[in-house]
UniProtKB/TrEMBL annotation:
Active-site residues, record numbering mapped to chain: 275
Cross-referenced Pfam families: AstE_AspA_cat (PF24827)
Domain of life of the organism encoding this protein: Bacteria
Naturally occurring in which organism (per UniProt): Pseudoluteimonas lycopersici
GO biological process: one example: proteolysis
Cofactor dependence: Zn(2+)
Entries under Gene3D superfamilies matching the protein: Zn peptidases (3.40.630.10)
Cross-referenced InterPro entries: AstE_AspA_cat (IPR055438), Peptidase_M14 (IPR000834)
Signal peptide span: none
Protein name, per record: M14 family metallocarboxypeptidase
Length: 309
């Protein structure tokens, strides 16, 4: 067996301290523009939505990153609230651009039916650097809790708190990529002083439901709509996807709240986390963006047709 090359930061078996985290951050390079690729699209939607800056992340010397949320212009206290989030992991491009596509094309059909709250890019520093973590080597999607140490997570947490009790749906848009195995999981093991154990990358779209409120018919409705756009990931031979048991075709479950996952920040009846695979030979980035928008649309349609608690 060929020995794995140690991760280039830190000492194998020893958790990172401040010096290692600083070295890791120094290796990250800006590769795309949040202002040019995301904020400009948000600005173009000002005629259709109320757009607000809900926080700003000061990541000097890299810069300051304003965080934006878009709300239905026809917001009404009598309507349920739907939350769509993208870019919690900034490198997951279709989460960001799928949310923007949903806003551009689909969102207006819900005027007078639901209040939409859409946050297309939760982690702009990560978006620009095609990175899973924030500059402090923290994964925002393990830090959604009160008084979070991750600025991205704390800002979104604070945004949704005044609306608790009114959410019907929260759909959080993610990707699984080949870089999960080539970079992000090895980095995680190195940061935590653990041995890296190779895993598998699912080929296709799948959902991660909340084990505390799984709503299997809701998950199935989303997969049925996405299957019109791209393929649903099969289970591995052991009946799992990324090591978790498959509870229905293309569906696994996590316990959201203890894990600090984004999709656990509301009390919505219907919650899910999407995952697409843009590196698949059977899918294109365009299909992945479309799959994310289709998932958001299907989630809202199902919930509005089945709103009872």
């Amino acid at each position: 067996m060929t020995a794995m090359t140690p991760y280039p930061v830190g000492t194998p078996g020893q958790p990172w301290g401040a010096a290692e985290k600083a070295e890791w951050r120094s290796r990250q390079r800006k590769q795309r523009s949040y202002a040019g690729e995301v904020v400009s699209v948000i600005d173009a939607l000002r005629g259709d939505f109320d757009i607000g800056q809900y926080s700003e992340l000061d990541y000097a010397p890299d810069g300051a990153y304003p965080l934006f949320a878009l709300r239905s212009r026809s917001w009404s206290d009598s309507l349920p609230v739907v939350l769509v989030t993208g870019g919690v992991h900034g490198y997951e491009s279709s989460g960001v651009h799928g949310a923007l596509r949903f806003l551009q094309r689909d969102a207006q059909k819900y005027a007078g039916k639901a209040n939409l709250l859409v946050v297309p890019c939760v982690s702009p520093w990560g978006y620009e650097r095609i990175q899973r973590w924030n500059p402090d080597a923290l994964d925002p999607n393990r830090n959604f809790r009160a008084n979070s140490p991750a600025g991205e997570s704390a800002a979104l947490w604070n945004l949704v708190q005044p609306l608790l009790g009114r959410f019907l749906v929260h759909i959080d848009l993610h990707e699984t990529t080949d870089s999960d195995e080539s970079e992000f999981r090895p980095a995680l093991a190195a940061r935590d002083g653990k041995e890296y154990e190779p895993g598998t990358i699912p080929d296709g779209f799948y959902l991660c439901a909340d084990s505390a409120r799984p709503q299997p018919a809701f998950q199935q409705a989303i997969n049925d709509e996405v299957a019109k756009v791209t393929h649903i990931a099969p289970a591995d031979p052991d009946g799992t996807i990324i090591g978790s048991p498959v509870v229905a075709p293309g569906v696994i479950e996590y316990d959201y709240t203890p894990l600090g996952l984004c999709a656990g920040i509301t009390d919505a009846r219907y919650v899910t986390t999407t995952e697409v695979y843009p590196d698949s030979p059977r899918a294109t980035p365009e299909q992945c963006n479309e799959a994310q928008a289709a998932a958001a649309r299907a989630a809202i349609d199902y919930a509005l047709a089945n709103p009872g608690r």
